[in-house]
Design goal:
The complex is a heterodimer of chains A (about 800) and B (about 55). In chain A, about 45% of the residues lie in helices and about 15% in strands. Chain A is an alpha+beta fold and about 800 residues long. Chain A folds into six domains: about 50 residues, no CATH class; about 90 residues, Alpha-Beta Plaits; about 230 residues, no CATH class; about 80 residues, Calcium-transporting ATPase, cytoplasmic transduction domain A (Distorted Sandwich); about 140 residues, HAD superfamily/HAD-like (Rossmann fold, 3-Layer(aba) Sandwich), CATH 3.40.50.1000; about 100 residues, Calcium-transporting ATPase, cytoplasmic domain N (3-Layer(aba) Sandwich). A seven-stranded mixed sheet of chain A has the order 18-30-29-28-19-26-27, sandwiched between helices. Chain B is about 75% helix and about 0% strand. Classes of the chains: A alpha+beta (about 800), B mainly alpha (about 55). At the A-B interface, helix 4, strand 7, helix 8 and helix 9 of A face helix 1, helix 2 and helix 3 of B.
């Protein structure tokens, strides 16, 4: 039978494998009507280049869009909040499209005006995965624009966060300006200093010498005051708060360099050290630029607002109309459709609701609620539409309050190694400088002053300051390439100091989507193709898992009828066979007390059996835990039931290390308790139920199977499939810290060498001009190279 | 010798011109998305220019 199997076919639009009968249209196969519809739309607009730039570029469209889904975009209040600009005629909007992934996407999205002539211009920002659309408000509406995007498979992310977020999306460009100014001045000053380097002197040059020197002063002033302004400010705050960091000796060195150089030029003794000063600031900024590579399409700051809908249906004057969630007030009546999230604590008015709290508690089975029961915000309705009475406003709801409280507490900052070094450094340098000054002041006050400033100049921890950004920056890039994204490069240091790790179970140790499917009951081999063809029509997660389990149909059919009843199941007639698949109530007409996620199968009116699902652990999770246990204390905290306590306890080192049935705030309290006794705790979790714990931990790592999906606020995001490399990632971070120490040693060696010149009062501009850039370049090359080699060693490439 | 002063002055003006050019390019957002333009330049001109013509007319 397998031999007759048809060739695997791929959808022309989205490139996914077609498991059921493909839809034939214009000589191409499509997996679903959505994909075919998108193709038709592009074909009629002569935009089929979309399919030639990249192969199968589309996004799957099997989830049909509810025509009323974007009804709320007709609400003028919401429109006003979403638009960046509007003058009644022209409107501009920025939408977030996480599906943008290839060059075809850019091409199609920038040719939107071909489909809708009322769109003036659309521009994609590929790095951020956003689109800026300018359109004619009189001829089209925001809703139509959004619906057009959705019908093409680019569903904009619209949630409560889209309206509450401040619209200042401008990236910080000041670093570019500062770098530009410093680079410009650096080049020119070197040019002007050239005669000094090669020692040209005589009548011919003397008139130029003065000009060149004053020219250098003029060029150095903006570099010190503008390009170096961040360092000046940081040092000032550090001195004010009496917490010395590495910026303090840097600024002391910078100011000493500048003062000494101006003095030399003004008194005519020498040319000063402007090339060293400006080159030094330029390198520092370059290090900063390298360090602040951000992954702008990822967000590390998401709170509950990103999970909540923008608007829900509420009863206004007897009719349900979309109302912005923030505008809901107590005693409003709202309607929640299947799959929507309840935005505020409310009382159930309908007779029954099935609420999936997995989002909030981690418990995967839906809970049945009856009329009059209180439903907490964050629950997802999985049955049909329900009506609710608002009990508390969004901001006052139980869980939102909990999250808001957590966000306001700052987390304990890990003292950065560079700042600790900086503290001692400052004192040592000042002591050495003062000693030199006192020593020389017995012979000559002028020599004393020169030697004093020389010490401060040469001891300036330029190389020291560069070692951290370049090591962390390189480590961050390699880890990101591997699927581990960090909020900032300082997280590398946090990673190295962790000694306790807390894991969540559902979605972290287990796959969030692929459950293990088991079937018990009568075999249905004779109807297998029909069942597969039917299941394939549905995009419900459970249907997809069954389809995955059953595999490819030998002879796919197109169902003659198909119906999906939300929260119940699917039914249809395929090849003359009538099939019903769904929950107990739907298939058997009766519901036993126990609620379980099983799907029942009925063929031609006869009950066959049921599919049940159990959590599927990620590949190699046991090895990962065993490896980690050598270095860390491990804990498991789950909102789920304790069915697997025995099995998991062995991997976590005892019964006391595994906790079940924990609510979000209990998880948070547990993490806080673990932080006692100077332990550094990392929390690995997913979902909003872990949000509090992720935030409370010294290092919050959220796990996601799709990086573009929503993840709760955290310090780092790890792709689910690289979770098994977690031990290597921790080892790599620790090794990177050692690279920093080695770089410190190198820069100290340079400092000592320079100091030996300086205390003797022998530091000439040439020595300084060679020594300072050389030490910087050595450190930059050393750190980048070693960190890269280490990445190869730990197989993080 | 005054000709040297002039050349130095002019070379500085030219360098300044490039600095201003750089600042302008940052300001106009050319450094905001560094991945997109790399792809955009490979698009077939025929089709997209056809599309923009439609828009203009």
């Amino acid at each position: 039978m397998r031999k007759n199997q048809v060739d695997i076919q791929f959808c022309y639009h989205c490139g996914e494998e077609v498991k059921g009968a493909p839809i034939q249209y214009e000589g191409h196969q499509f997996c679903c009507n959505g994909c075919k519809g998108a193709y038709e739309l592009l074909l009629s607009n002569n935009l089929c280049d979309y399919y030639t730039i990249d192969k199968n570029p589309g996004n799957n469209l099997r989830v049909e869009i509810d025509p009323t889904e974007y009804e709320y975009l007709d609400n003028s209040h919401i429109i006003r909040k979403l638009l960046n600009y509007s003058d009644g005629k022209t409107a501009r909007v920025t939408l977030n499209l996480p599906q943008i992934h290839c060059s075809s996407c850019i091409w199609l999205l920038e040719n939107l005006q071909t489909i809708n002539a009322a769109i003036f211009e659309s521009r994609v920002n590929f790095s951020k995965k956003t689109i800026h659309i300018t359109f004619n408000e009189q001829q089209t509406s925001l809703r139509q624009v959004v619906e057009l995007l959705a019908s093409l498979g680019y569903v904009p992310t619209l949630n409560l966060n889209s309206v509450t977020e401040a619209k200042t999306q401008n990236t910080n460009r000041s670093l570019y300006y500062k770098l530009g100014v410093a680079g410009f001045a650096f080049g020119n000053i070197m040019l002007m200093s050239f005669p000094e380097y090669i020692g040209i002197s005589g009548d011919f040059t003397s008139q130029f010498q003065l000009l060149f020197r004053w020219f250098n002063v003029a060029l150095a002033v903006p570099v010190l005051l503008y390009s170096g302004s961040d360092y000046l400010q940081n040092a000032l705050t550090a001195v004010k708060t009496r917490i010395l960091n590495l910026d303090v000796p840097i600024v002391i060195g910078m100011l000493a360099l500048f003062a000494r150089s101006v003095y030399e030029v003004a008194s005519g003794i020498g040319a000063g050290y402007f090339d060293s000063l400006v080159g030094f600031i330029f390198f520092l900024l370059l290090g900063k630029f390298f360090q602040t590579k951000t992954y702008s399409h990822l967000s590390f700051e998401r709170d509950f607002k990103s999970f909540f809908p923008l608007a829900v249906l509420a009863k206004v004057e007897g009719e349900f109309v979309p109302v912005e969630v923030n505008q809901l007030s107590v005693a409003d009546i709202i309607m929640i459709k299947s799959g929507q999230i309840v935005p505020c604590d409310s009382i159930l008015l309908s007779s029954e609701a099935r609420i999936d709290y997995s989002f909030v508690t981690g418990e995967s089975n839906p809970v049945v609620k009856k009329t009059g029961d209180l439903i907490y915000a964050g629950g997802k309705q999985v049955g049909g539409a329900i009506e609710l009475l608002v009990d508390k406003r969004v901001e006052e709801s139980y869980l939102t309050e909990l999250w808001q409280k957590e966000n306001s507490d700052g987390k304990g900052q890990v003292a950065q190694v560079a700042d600790v070094v900086g503290k001692y450094f400052t004192f040592t340098i000042l002591a050495v400088a003062l000693f030199t000054f006192v020593y020389w002041s017995f012979s000559s006050l002028q020599t004393a002053f020169l030697a004093f400033t020389s010490v401060l100049i040469v001891a300036c921890p330029c190389a020291l300051a560069l070692s951290v950004p370049f090591t962390h920056g390189t480590a961050m890039r390699w880890l990101a390439k591997h699927g581990f994204f960090m909020k900032s490069s300082a997280i590398v240091e946090k990673l190295a100091h962790i000694n306790r790790i807390v894991f969540d179970k559902t979605g972290t140790l287990t796959h969030s989507k692929n459950a293990a499917v088991t079937y018990d009951g009568k075999t249905f081999d004779e109807y297998k193709d029909e069942v597969i063809s039917l299941v394939f029509q549905s995009s419900h997660p459970l249907s997809e898992q069954i389809a995955q389990h059953l595999g490819q149909a030998a002879n796919p059919y197109r169902p003659s009828t198909f119906e999906e009843i939300p929260g119940a199941g699917i039914k249809g007639v395929v090849n003359g066979v009538s099939i019903k698949l769904g929950n107990e109530q739907f298939v058997l007409g009766e519901q036993q007390d126990e609620i379980q996620s099983a799907v029942y199968l009925q063929i031609n009116g006869a009950y066959y059996g049921r599919f049940s699902f159990s959590l599927n652990y990620r590949n190699g999770f046991e090895q990962v835990l065993n490896q980690l246990r050598n270095r860390f204390e491990l804990f498991l905290i789950s909102g789920d039931n304790n069915k697997e306590q025995q099995r998991l306890a062995t991997h976590f080192g005892g019964e006391g290390h595994v906790l079940f049935n924990k609510k979000p705030h209990e998880k948070e309290a547990f993490v806080c308790a673990l932080k006692q006794d100077t332990h550094k705790v990392a929390m690995v979790g997913d979902g909003l139920n872990d949000a509090g714990a992720l935030n409370a931990a010294d290092l919050g790592i959220s796990v996601t199977d799709d990086v573009n999906n929503f993840t709760p606020a955290s310090d780092a995001i790890i792709r689910g499939d690289v979770l098994q490399d977690l031990p290597a990632i921790f080892k790599y971070a620790l090794a990177s810290e050692k690279v920093i120490y080695a770089a410190f040693a190198i820069s100290f060696a340079y400092n000592l060498l320079g100091l030996s010149f300086a205390v003797q009062g022998m530091l000439s501009p040439v020595v300084s001009a060679i020594l300072m850039p050389l030490s910087s370049i050595t450190v930059v090359v050393f750190t980048t190279l070693t960190t890269t080699l280490l990445a190869k060693k730990y197989r993080i490439v | 010798m005054s000709v040297l002063f002039m050349t130095i002055f002019f070379s500085f003006i030219i360098a300044l011109f490039f600095l201003v050019g750089f600042i302008w390019s940052v300001k106009s957002g050319q450094f905001d998305d560094t991945d997109g333009p790399a792809v955009r330049m490979l698009f077939d001109d025929k089709k997209s220019s056809h599309a923009t013509n439609n828009n203009k007319s």
